[in-house]
Amino acid sequence: MERLTDVELLQRYRRDRRELLNFLLAASVIKKVVMPPGAVSYEDIDLDQISVDYILECVRKNVALDLSEAIKRYHDDLNLPPSAGNGFGEVYFLVTRPDFSGPVPNRIPPNKAVPVQSTPLSAVSKRSLSLHSTPEAALDIDDEIDDFDDMDDSAVKHRKSSLNNNISNFVLSLPPFETGLSDDDLRETAYEVLLVSVGAAGGLILPTKEKKEEKKSKLAQKFSRSKTDKYQPQPTRAPGLAGLMETMRTQLEISGASDRRTREALLHASASRVGKRMDTLLVPLELLCWVARTEFTDKKLFIRWEKRQINLLLEGLLNHPSQALDPSDRSAVELRGLISKLEEAETLPSPAGPAQHAESLKAIRVVATALAERAGRGDHTGEVCHWVDGYHLNVRVYEKLLMSVFDILDESHLVEEVEEILEMLKSTWRILGVTQTIHDICYTWVLFRQYVLTGELTLLQHAMHQMKRIASDGQRSTQERFYMKGLRSTVEGLEGPQELSYVQSVLTPIKSWVDKQLEDYHLHFLDSPQKMEVLVMVAMVSGRLIADESEQAGVLAEMAVVAKQAEDYIRSSIKLAYDRLLEALDEKLEVENVHPLALLAEEVQTLAKNDARVFAPILSKWHPESIAISACLLHSLYRKELQPFLDGVSQLTDDVTSVLPAADSLEQLLKDLVASATEDEAVKHTFEQQMVAYQVEVVSGTLIMRWVNVQLSRLSDWVDRTIEQERWQPISMQQRYGESIVEVFRIIEETIEQFFNLKLPMRIMQLKGLTNGFDVALQQYSNKVVAQLGDKADLILPPPGLTRYKKEVAIKASKKKGSDPRDPDERRSSEINMLTTATLCIRLNTLHYILSHVDLLEDNIQDRWAVKRPQDGPNRANKSLPSKLSGFMLSVAFEGSRKVVNIAIDKICEFTGTKLIFWDMRTTFIDGLYSVSVSQARMDKVVSALDPVLGELCEVIVEPLRDRIVLGLLQASLDGLLRVLLDGGPTRGFAQSDSAMLEEDVNVLKDFFIAEGDGLPRGVVENAAAPVKHVLSMYSLDTNEVIETFKRMSEQMVGGHEITGRQGPHSSLDSDKLLRILCHRNDQVASKFLKKQYKLSST
């Protein structure tokens, strides 16, 4: 915060001195007080002209206080050069001019090599008056007085803190005083004007001596009591106008002597002008004429007072008149000359000096009265003579009067008598040319300036309320409008001289100050949004009033200007806040070991959230899309920092894994803020177009897919390797599956863990690519398991050629021994023999492991994805189409694997059944069943051999696959039976009478698999046995009937069909089956038919 100006510091130091005097006198620590000649009480003494340091010295030495010496010491100290220091140990006198060399440093001076003796307290007095010492240093003198316990610490603390608020640049846009009138000059003049206005109403009285003795000041009463006296609460102020005037005197910090002196002069002036109102007096002139030099205890004090009155005449009548005066104007030149003579008279000895003084005053009265009687304010007040001609001095004086509403000990609060004071100040309107509008404007300024000084929210709210009461140009009366248009001034601006109305002169600096605050509202109002809300309203209302003065207002135009102003605040504050984030990065990076862009993204997210939470509700009242504007701007600012990094990304690194997620999270947050800003899709689309995507998804997606492809390639290699190394032994009695599938799923789960630990922005397509790779790997595994089995056709020997049955040939063929030339080669036979029932079951169990674990795998992936991307999670309410699509894509991620695994299970079940029947039990079943005759080789022998095989299957296979593997064995058994019945070769011959035994054998086989309800369902068995029953029904027919049926069916067949072509056991060609039945018919009729019709031999 910048330092206060010298004038403001001086004013504050004077107030502090008065408080210190009050403190010292109230504490009763002074041994004795010697009054100066002519003074009866403290009201006769100007406390501003007393050296506080001298009083402190008397207190420390416990000697009598001579107020005459105190006054002399004060004026002597003024001639000393400025001093500065820190503490009582050392004082440094400045030999240079501080106004050219700048403020002195606030740091403590370096220690000297030798101890420094304590400087007497009197030396510190020279420092206490320096304009350039720090406020804290000036106030630290209280620490040296340990016995003063009555000081209001909270008031001092508040005063010190209020010094931190800089108002040096917060001034009215009015021309400066050419004579250098100070705020103290204006304050004292304001009280004089107030006395005149009260006197015009008959309320100006001069207290009698008795009354004056009764109403001694609180300080004097405290001084008069002894140290042993108990504190007695003082009565409240006197009722009525007298008490209120006493309050005003205190508030304006006017000494009793000055008050009495001014009252006497004004009463004499009014008495000398019988028939004229007191408020038509030319106040400075009358005071110059009626206040004598002898009424001041010090000549320098009189000269300063006289200079102030002269300056008031110059400012009010010549420097800033309502109607411009030519510098060469006779009256102006004459008045300046007379004033010079008046000042010169003070330097002349008696009697020449007093004579010239009286003569000059008499001449000044004539010239000044003529100037004051000019029609400077039109017909507004109806006056003939006004105390000043121009309005610039009037409004500044009225400002000082309004400043009296603040408590001098706690400047952030209004006094209790504020309403009475404001009502009394209306009596000054006639003198100062104030209207209701001018009052509202000036009071707004005073309240707002006090808020700037103290930061008190209540004052800001009062100022806003007062500003709303300011009437616009169209709301003023015709007379007031004409009067207000005449109140204009020319000030120097950035673009040269500017002519401003009074409304503009007051509200322009207010709006400029507010604009400066709101242009960085993130800095000033993060912890005080209530102040910001009121200040935004101040900015908008003041802007409207200023525009109204320029006749630029309009409903639509005003709305556009308000929205544009709010947008400017947003853009300015966002940029400044963002710049601060950039500046603070280096310091934070020393603590946090992260990439700067990642840290910046987190900070911007915090900024965006604070903006949406704290400031957007305020600004959205003036611009509905405030959230969208700030979000778009933050998006653009961060993009400028991010884009060079994205352009350089080529591989997955630690920096990439930290920056990309942070950037993506920030972008999603900003997009969500834009989406929440408005329901208008067109407006929303406009803002979305402004947010050029970071393309983090593209960069991240490319890196992720590269990583996924590498991992899937490794997974494919692992599948091949584990399959090759698999021995198809159960892991344990409980884990009856191969180790290879466990290893495959371990690799898959590790890959999933690594995938989700990438912490990169990812979309469903990258995850889908990974799951597709897993799906392909599992299909690859399943296919390789099936491929290891080889061709099922190798298990089934080619059927023998068709021959006529002949018993002798059948007996001879059944006795034939040796290897069958139709067997596969030795290598293939060895491979088939290695495919034991247990290993085949382990394969099936392993494939079932895939089916059971892909469900768990899907659930795991969906859960991890829901954590990674909550917006795409399956449980999100009101899911959008992309979210629903994501859930569907994940739920069917392994459908391909499920299908392929089920097909593989069916194939292995079919392969297992075929191997057991056609390979392992070929001798018993395929070769032995019904060999030579049905009665000698029935099905019960086959079932007996089949029972332990089925038991082994059920022991190893997992429960969910039991029915499927048993069904495969049933189907293979039925296929084997059909092979015996239709392709049994020359050893099989069936008579019509054998059909009953065949039916019985089929029922035995079915009952074996039904197992009295513990096996396969009866319906499943019956459906599987239907083709066998169809063949058996043909065996039960008479041979001639079979032949006739065959002939009829053959005629119906498509031409060119070769009846010798094998159609298989499941062929739907009944003619083919009939032919095969005739070939296996143990019947002469069938044999002759085949020999005659098809030339079939019996061998």
UniProtKB/TrEMBL annotation:
Residue ranges occupied by any MHD1 domain in the UniProt entry: 657-799
Matching Pfam families: TPR_PATROL1
InterPro entries: Munc13_1, Munc13_dom-2, PATROL1_C, unc-13_homologue
Name of the protein: Protein unc-13 homolog
Gene3D superfamilies: 1.10.357.50
Entry superkingdom: Eukaryota
Species for this entry: Sphagnum jensenii
Residue ranges of domain MHD2 in the record: 936-1046
